[in-house]
Amino acid sequence: MKSNITKGRTGWFAPCVVLALALTACGGGNVSPAPLDPRLSTVLDDLLLHALDPLAPGRGRPDYPDVAQADIPKADAMVLKAGLMRGATPDLVAMASRSLQRLQDSADADGDGVVGWGLPFAWDAFGDGTTNPGGTVYAISTAIVIDALLDQGALQGGAPRDALARQSLAALQPFMDPTRKTPGGLPPYSLTPQDRSWDVFNTAVYLAAMAQRLSLEPALAAQAASLRDWADQVMEVMAQRHLTSADGAWYWPYLLPGSSVNDLPHAGYMIYGVETYIRNGGRRESAFDRPALWRHLREFLVDGEAWVRAYPNFLPSGPARLYDIGFVLLTLCQLPNEETAVRDAVLNHMPQYRLASGHYAKYPVGLPVAQPLPVEVITEYETYLLAGTAACRAAGR
């Protein structure tokens, strides 16, 4: 679907490109937070002072084969979300302003007129020999960016909010196209035809949650009914396809066909998507056992293990990545829940990822494991940690 929105440095965000001004005007970043947990203070200082490029926060090493450096929209979206949270420091607000501009500049990276976000390099997403070209629009990248832009719009209000809502709708609409449905009736993993043969639950649920958020936007009143209907349809599939663990927790496979189970960040996407849909008025709330959703996170902790697990306790697993830690903190601290023990366990394990340089490694460092894990720094994962710790700061955790 082609977009009629004009892209440019004075385009979608022209009324308030400078995020710092928006935050000051709207009462955001200058609000004093609760006393800061020292575990969070160290991480925020490290990431802002040592880890991220203030002029290009989403640029760095990605976790993809043979790619040394790239601009990752998901990373800029995480920085933007962090900068919009209560108690954001001036340095973080300035960094988020850069990320906002970078998201604007990359909204049609391949110049084909389709608004959306993805990866700037080629990637075989499913290892099936079908390589997507650089500039491919991916569902999860687009959903996460929409999430950040709607946060920005909610803070600004008025004409800037309306422009952001229309832009977000333009990015979502290609995934709502019924001719692009997967065999299971879900939106596709990407906009390339070869990726439509897989049902991927975490990307679909995040998109549906964004459709529900968009249905509440004043500028989209004419589209509200169709957005709600589409979100409901996706969520009906989600409820029907859930699995139940021996402890009664709800979880999902990563994809079908296949038998893999979501690891921690993708389990987090599932919970975040369902909760965001419900908290924004989703009509299928009764189809979900919300306590059972959250209870699944307990299955990533095992007494006697020196780490947070990458996979739940009914599967063999090593330690979680920094990516996992960052997004589960964002979910636990941004959304109301009763899983304080899980949150505290994740916060307690967080220092294991810290390097002397102030960077945070992909895996915890120095664990007593049979085969040492590689010490790698992935910029995108550091931005997830930034968003997670900023959310906990904003919540006064």
The secondary-structure element order is HHEEHHHHEHHEEEHHHHH
Q: Label the overall shape.
A: globular
- What is the CA-CA span between the terminal residues? 43 Å
Task: Round the Cα radius of gyration to an integer and report it.
Answer: 20 Å
Strand order of the largest sheet: 1-2
Q: Might you state the CATH topology name?
A: Glycosyltransferase
User: Unreliable runs, pLDDT <50, ≥5 residues?
Assistant: 1-18, 20-33
What's the mean pLDDT score? 91
Helix content: 40-55%
Topology overview:
Layout: H1 19-26, H2 38-51, E1 59-60, E2 70-71, H3 73-83, H4 90-105, H5 139-156, H6 158-176, E3 199-200, H7 201-214, H8 224-240, E4 243-244, E5 250-251, E6 255-256, H9 264-279, H10 290-295, H11 322-334, H12 340-349, H13 379-394
Antiparallel strand pairs: 1-2, 3-6, 4-5
Helix pairs in contact: 2-13, 3-4, 3-5, 3-13, 5-6, 5-7, 6-7, 7-8, 7-9, 9-11, 11-12, 11-13
Write up this protein:
By secondary structure, this protein is mainly alpha-helical. The chain has a single domain (14-394), classed as Alpha/alpha barrel (Glycosyltransferase), CATH 1.50.10.20. 45% of the residues lie in helices and 3% in strands. It is built from 13 helices and six strands. The protein has a two-stranded antiparallel sheet with strand order 1-2. β4 (243-244) and β5 (250-251) form a beta hairpin. α3 runs antiparallel to α4 (90-105), α5 runs antiparallel to α6 (158-176) and α5 (139-156) runs parallel beside α7. The longest helix has 19 residues, at 158-176. The protein is globular and about 55 Å long. Residues 1-18 and 20-33 have low confidence and may be disordered.
